[in-house]
């Protein structure tokens, strides 16, 4: 279309013929098709965009216990005063001899940005979408989970680390802090483990009516089932979910015996 004038000589009989190629004068009238962008196609396919109010995210988690603002400011000022009085703290830091209390660091993380970081991780891996649809929550109770592989080896469960099936052969050890009279339900589920329907999950463990943080006091509704990801299905997401109960629940009709 934009080629400049060129002349080609063709041998036609005994007389050369000149062929001239020029830009068409109708080039401005060519109709250009306008295609939607990738974002517009996603919005057209995404049913959530059609009714944002209907599919708006809903927080189903426990409320955050915030201390009074005055009490929080006073504790921070008191902490700063204690640091300023400690003259050896800066010297030890300059010498490289300062040691941090990792338990205190963990406690500060749990009461600070930790819950929101866990929510972002769960949202990134599709945990909320596959288990609760449009609902989500910010974890307020931290679970300390570990598997006793043998007498000398313990496999801790973090947020997204890999646990082999042979390491998770027995019931895990779970600890969490709560009020001594509170009731809880603990569930271990696999969103990727249902081999018959991809829209359903596979239940691996169900313990209800847990008193305080003692999982051994709970009622086992579904016995523990060792993870068994078939070959070729990739990594499976094993999710521990802790639910708060307002009162004791009768789980007798939901009880499933181990085959």
In short:
This protein has six helices and eleven strands. The protein is globular, with a radius of gyration of 32 Å. Among the domains are: 66-99; 141-259, PEBP-like (Phosphatidylethanolamine-binding Protein).
Distance between the termini: 75 Å
The helix/strand order is EEHEHHHHHEEEEEEEE
The rough form would be described as globular
CATH class of the domain at 141-259: Alpha Beta
- Major sheet attributes: 4 strands, antiparallel
Helix content: 10-25%
* CATH topology value of the domain at 141-259: Phosphatidylethanolamine-binding Protein
Protein traits:
PEBP-like_sf, globular, 259 residues, transit peptide, disordered N terminus, PEBP_euk, PEBP, alpha+beta, 4-stranded antiparallel beta sheet, ribosomal protein, Phosphatidylethanolamine-binding Protein
Annotate the secondary structure layout.
Blueprint: E1 6-12, E2 15-21, H1 38-45, E3 58-59, H2 69-85, H3 88-95, H4 102-111, H5 114-124, H6 127-132, E4 135-136, E5 144-148, E6 154-157, E7 173-175, E8 183-190, E9 202-211, E10 219-222, E11 239-245
Parallel strand pairs: 3-4
Antiparallel strand pairs: 1-2, 5-6, 5-7, 8-9, 8-11, 9-10
Task: Characterise this structure.
The chain has 259 residues and is of the alpha+beta class. Among the domains are: 66-99; 141-259, PEBP-like (Phosphatidylethanolamine-binding Protein, Alpha-Beta Complex). Helices cover 23% and strands 23% of the residues. It contains six helices and eleven strands. It has helices at residues 38-45, 69-85, 88-95, 102-111, 114-124, 127-132; strands at 6-12, 15-21, 58-59, 135-136, 144-148, 154-157, 173-175, 183-190, 202-211, 219-222, 239-245. The strands form four sheets. The chain has a four-stranded antiparallel β-sheet, with no helix packed on it. Strands 6-5-7 form a three-stranded antiparallel β-sheet, with no helix packed on it. Strands 1-2 form a two-stranded antiparallel ribbon. Strand 9 (202-211) and strand 10 (219-222) form a beta hairpin. The termini are far apart. The model is unreliable at 1-31 (pLDDT under 50).
């Amino acid at each position: 279309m934009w080629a400049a004038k060129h002349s080609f000589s063709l041998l036609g009989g005994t007389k050369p013929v000149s062929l001239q190629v020029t830009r068409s004068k109708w080039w401005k009238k060519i109709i250009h098709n306008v295609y939607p962008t990738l974002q517009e196609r996603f919005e057209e396919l995404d049913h959530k965009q059609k009714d944002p109010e209907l599919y708006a995210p809903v927080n189903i988690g426990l409320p955050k216990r915030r201390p009074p603002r005055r009490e929080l400011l006073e504790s921070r000022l008191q902490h700063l005063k204690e640091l300023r009085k400690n003259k050896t703290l800066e010297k030890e830091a300059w010498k490289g001899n300062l040691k941090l209390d990792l338990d205190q660091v963990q406690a500060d993380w749990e009461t600070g940005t930790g819950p929101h970081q866990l929510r972002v991780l769960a949202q990134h891996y599709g945990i909320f979408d596959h288990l609760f649809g449009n609902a989500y929550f910010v974890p307020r109770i931290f679970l300390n989970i570990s598997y006793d592989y043998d007498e000398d080896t313990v496999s801790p469960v973090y947020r997204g680390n890999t646990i082999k099936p042979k390491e998770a052969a027995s019931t895990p050890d779970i600890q969490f802090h709560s009020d001594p009279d509170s009731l809880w339900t603990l569930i271990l589920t696999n969103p990727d483990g249902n081999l018959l329907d991809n829209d359903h999950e596979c239940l691996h463990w169900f313990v209800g009516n847990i008193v305080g943080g003692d999982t051994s006091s709970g009622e086992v509704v579904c016995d523990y089932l060792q993870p068994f990801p078939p070959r070729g299905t990739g990594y499976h997401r094993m999710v521990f979910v802790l639910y708060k109960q307002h009162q004791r629940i009768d789980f007798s009709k939901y009880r499933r015996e181990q085959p």
